[in-house]
Amino acid sequence: MNFAFSEEEMAFLKDFQQYLEQEKAGPDSSVIFAPWRETDSWLVDSPERRGFMKRLAQAGYIGMSWEKQYGGRERPGVYDYLLNEELSSQGAPIIGKGVGCIGKTIIAHGSDKLKQEFLPQILAADIEFALGYSEPGAGSDLASLRLRAERRGDEWVLNGQKMWTTSAHFADWYWVAARTDPEAPKHKGISVFLVPMDHPGLTIKEIKTMGDHRTNEVFFDEVNIGPDYLVGEENAGWRYVCEALDYERFALYTVGPLLLKFEALVELAKVARRDGRPLSDDPVVRDRIAEFACEVEMATMLQRRVIAKAIKGEVPTVEAAMYKYFSTGLGRRIANYAIDCLGPLGLLKSGAPGAPFGGRWEMSDRATVVDTIGGGSTEVQKNIVARRGLGLMVGA
Questions:
Q1: Which helix (H) or strand (E) is 9 found in, with range?
Q2: Right CATH for 130-246 from 2.30.120.10, 3.90.1150.10, 3.40.50.12780, 2.40.110.10
């Protein structure tokens, strides 16, 4: 199978790379381009990064795959993927929730009011969203969520809790899945709402992870919202959630950060020394790095399968699960091997005297553990492949 991109697509990528080179000359480049932040480098979580996204919007890079009537350019979704691949490869924030799952769901199912209010703000990069899906006891089994939305007069009132909402502390709006019919089967009684993050009934509490990544738990206490902020039809939210996740196939499955990590390992082997000689002279080290090179190529091919299936209009559920499982595990193995190569000094954190490479490998070793959990844990991905790809566990 030929996974090569077309000449037009490669010309677009070259032009965008040149655009990013100009951005790197700006005064905020060290904040905007920060691959050492691992997965957090994707977030638009600072004024500098918001400014960068606004400039991307002004340059016409936001919403390229949207229909022209909504301000887009009707380009194939692969252009959104190429954009995010390059952004993530350089440690810059990526376009994601607003343009992808939220914007396209509003286009497909939202009222005229929601389209008029939110779509222009998304295209202008004036707004950031948080996703409210997971709950205590409803992570891998999202349809078991219990956040309750009750209709009281002309309003909806939400009570309950969400977990693992990464963007809650800097987002403007909350895209929330809530149960609106507790008597219906668990996949049938869910609706999606838009809630302003500054609502007085919301309480946001930080959750610190071992990878220095901040996520949050969010508590809803009599959070009242008007009927206009129900997305689409009542009790049709499960379909919208599944469609929204599908919209992200082009955007989230980039391989660039993994390639950067592998290249950093190669550089480590060249400069780190053992018994007065570079690690790269050790045949055992060279052999292991060669294995990693093969695995990186495998990850790239798995990622290309996700894109290839999505381009054909199919849903790459199994392909995405395979890539997520393999790539995050590979990132974990590379970081762990780097620590092994550095020896005891590799355990020194950033800021510690004598920490090799500024302690970034120590941080990467912790952060890659979080990567295997976020966005669906390794165990969840295995179950998807077993059930949907191999036909196993049917009825289990």
A1: helix 7-24
A2: 2.40.110.10
pLDDT in tens, 229-242: 999 999 999 888 87
Distances (CA, A) of 36 to 106, 333, 357: 34, 17, 11
Cα gap 39→22, rounded to integer Å: 24
State the Cα–Cα distance between residues 192 and 344, nearest whole angstrom: 49
Residues with a catalytic annotation lie at 248
C-beta separation of 155 from 225 below 8 A: yes
Q: Is the dihedral of CA 79, 82, 85, 88 positive or negative?
A: negative
Predicted pLDDT at 285:
96
Distance CA 191, CA 175 (A): 11
Residue 40 CB partners (closer than 8 Å, separation 6+): 212, 213, 214
pTM confidence score: 0.89
Over the stretch 59-100, which tens digit does the pLDDT of each residue have?
999 999 999 999 999 998 889 989 999 999 999 999 978 998
CATH of 7-95 among 3.30.70, 1.20.120, 1.10.540, 1.10.8? 1.10.540
Q: CATH top-level class for 253-389?
A: mainly alpha
- Which residues fall within 8 angstroms of residue 134, CB to CB, at 6 or more apart? 142, 162, 163, 164, 165
pLDDT tier, 248 (very low <50, low <70, confident <90, very high otherwise): low
The secondary structure of 188-213 as a DSSP string is TSEEEEEEETT-TTEEEEEEE-TTS-
Q: Which residue carries 């939220």 as its tokens?
A: 102
